[in-house]
Design goal:
single chain, about 300 residues, Rossmann fold, 2 domains, 4-stranded parallel sheet, about 55% helix
Length: about 300
């Protein structure tokens, strides 16, 4: 049986693993509670100013290789657009892991859209019918999970934008979504995994979606990478749905999202929605985040009461 491992993707991890299990491929998973020594090893092996998703995905690879043999293929998602460094992680991480003394078959980058189907066929040896059938089941599970993760309850409506990995992995964002729920917020994630499956397969490109993309391109016409265009689209949609505030969740050194901050600020000011920025890195403080979130939510709640 072929054996694969891939970085954790928040609560989507087990669903993705089940896809490979159903196609006759063993998925070796990193622990949801990464050992401190593993994360420290990943940090020490990473370039100093690289973004936090690089360090966490490297830590997951180390954790997987510690519990596996050398007959394993590591996978890496290519879910982001344009010129994001995520596309090149596998090249650098391969060399780092080899330098640390680990042996494995290699890191295989999995493309988005139709490329995903071909890549899964190559990894598992399954035929196209088997992969499409399994992929359809997994997509349904992802949709069901997202409905449970983001129930429509709460008096303050908060929209999440930013970088998909930072939003989806609670280790990176310090359990942001649960903290918002505890403060009585309804949270909607514009960058869930289902969104990127839809985007990759062009499943939601209706006339309305095309018009939204045109609006976003008028604001920022260049291809910069990351999720900048997706985030501009999301802000417009959240404004149309009368959301109360926006939270930008990004790696501290993510240049596309840092560059886009100016445009996000302008848009949120135009739509009269406050913007909260969470910069994610290994030095993040949960207490600091909780205090800032509480002030942000209470300011919104007070303004709503006054109006």
């Amino acid at each position: 049986m072929p054996k694969i491992g891939f970085p954790r993707m928040g609560l989507y991890t087990e669903i993705i693993a089940k896809l490979f299990d159903e196609l006759g491929t063993e998925a070796v998973l990193a622990s949801p509670n990464t050992p401190e020594k593993v994360f420290k090893l990943a940090i020490s092996g990473s370039p100093e100013f690289i973004c936090i998703p690089f360090k966490w995905t490297l830590a997951d690879y180390i954790d997987i290789l510690e519990k596996s043999d050398q007959n394993i293929t590591l996978l890496q998602y290519k879910t982001c657009a344009g010129r994001c460094r995520f596309h090149c992680y596998y090249l650098t991480q391969t060399e780092i892991l080899k330098k640390l003394g680990y042996k494995f078959k290699g890191i295989y980058p999995v493309r988005s859209g139709l490329g995903t189907i071909g890549d899964i066929m190559g990894i598992t040896g399954a035929n196209i019918g088997e992969v499409l059938f399994a992929f359809k089941r997994v997509y349904k599970r992802i949709k069901e999970l997202e409905e449970k993760l983001y129930p429509e309850t709460g008096d303050i409506r908060i929209g999440l934008i930013g970088e998909i990995y930072s939003i989806c992995d609670s280790r990176v964002n310090l359990n942001l979504v649960q903290k918002l729920k505890d403060l009585g917020c309804y949270v909607e994630n514009s960058l869930g995994l289902a969104h990127f499956i839809n985007d990759g397969f062009k499943m939601l490109f209706s006339n309305k979606r095309k018009l939204l993309r045109q609006k976003a391109r008028m604001i920022f016409p260049e291809l910069i990478g990351g999720h900048l265009i997706n985030n501009i689209e999301a802000i417009i949609q959240f404004a149309e749905k009368k959301f109360d505030g926006i939270i930008l969740v990004r790696p501290l050194s993510c240049m596309p999202e840092v560059f886009g901050e100016t445009f996000f600020n302008f848009l949120c000011e135009d739509y009269r929605m406050p913007l909260f920025i969470q910069n994610c890195d290994e030095a993040g403080s949960e207490v600091n985040l909780e205090n800032r979130l509480e002030a942000f939510v209470e300011a919104i709640r007070l303004k709503k009461c006054q109006n």
